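Trying the structure run again after the queue cleared.
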Amino acid sequence: MVRHGESVGNAAARVAQAAGDEEFGSGTRDADFALSEVGRAQAAAVGARLRAWPRPETVLSSPYLRARQTAEIALAGADWPQPRLDERLRDHEKGALQGLTVHGVRRRHPEKFRERERLGRFYYRPPGGESWPDVALRLRTLLPELSGHVLVFTHDLVIVMTRYLLEGLDEPRILEIESNQLANASITRWQRTATHLHLTTYNDTDHLTAP
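Done. Tokens:
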């Protein structure tokens, strides 16, 4: 599984949060955030890394633009299967809180902020959005369909919740794992054994720092 490269939304959110702004993205749909120039370079680095591994039998991608662009750039020139879009791989939907920084949620929706603090990030479902278990439910239908060598381009929480399912984790453990941000264009790998899928690499970014 590959997390998409840096998007213009990622960059804008980081700047807005640091500046204490309440929102970012100027009303752009989450599905429509493109890769930044940094993200495009990261996607190319992913492609170079992938060439060292066996050809996948299946390639899947989130339908969101940033994931599709990462797949397109990473696979350019490779005689590999073209990505099949699957909406179950889309990003965690924030609903009414989309485009808001933590400052924005606290100031504009104090009651929702308090509710999220009470329930915790795992179970909280914003109006019109999803909880983390909602993302897991999508993946519960997708993962049994996969066989052979599969390459997936998707989003951070989808990868985190794949670990949650494959490793049988609980809420405290997955919150601990998620607290260490999954990097843009990072690679996570599992190897099939006789009984299960074994995590071999998580949040690997060596290809982004190689000379």
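The two ends are 23 Å apart (CA to CA). Worth checking whether this holds up in the mutant runs.
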